[in-house]
Amino acid sequence: MTNNRRRKTTAGIGNRRPYQRLTEAQKRNIVGEVNQGLIGIRAACRKYGLNRNTLRSWRVELSLLTPEETLPTELSPDMTDPQPNSTLSRQVKALTKALAQAQLKISGYQTMIEVAEDKLKIKIRKKSGTKRSNE
C-alpha cells in the first residue's frame, strides 16, 4: 500500500525549525506588515508559522517602543513601484469621457420629458411632497 499523503508546506521564514527564535528585525517586519494593514493577523500567522497569541504579544511589546524603532527595516515590494503617471492620466481621461456621456444622456432625457409634457399635456415629473395613492 502506497502512502499518497502530501506534506503540508507552509510559507515560513526559510527552513526554520519549530520554536526557533526570530531576530528582532524579523519580528519588527512581521508586526510592521500587520500594523500597516498589508496582511491580516491570521494570514501572517499562516505565512510565518506563528501562533496568534505570539503575534499579539509581539504587537503589544513592539507598540511600547518609540515609533522610529517600530518601522520595518525594508519596504514592501508594493510600496517600491508606484503606479506610473501615464496609467493614471489614461484613467482620468476615460472617466471624464464617461462623465460627459452620462451628462449628455441626462440632458437628452430631460429634453424628452419636456417635449412629452408640452405635446401630450401630461405631467411626468413628480411634484415634491406628493404621497403614493392607495390603489
From TrEMBL:
Any one GO molecular-function label of the UniProt entry: sequence-specific DNA binding
Keyword match Hydrolase: no
Residue ranges crossing the lipid bilayer per the database entry: none
Residue runs in coiled coils: 85-119
Keywords: Coiled coil, Plasmid
One annotated GO biological process: DNA transposition
Pfam families in alphabetical order: HTH_Tnp_1 (PF01527)
Protein name: Transposase
Originating species: Spirosoma rhododendri
Lineage: Bacteria, Pseudomonadati, Bacteroidota, Cytophagia, Cytophagales
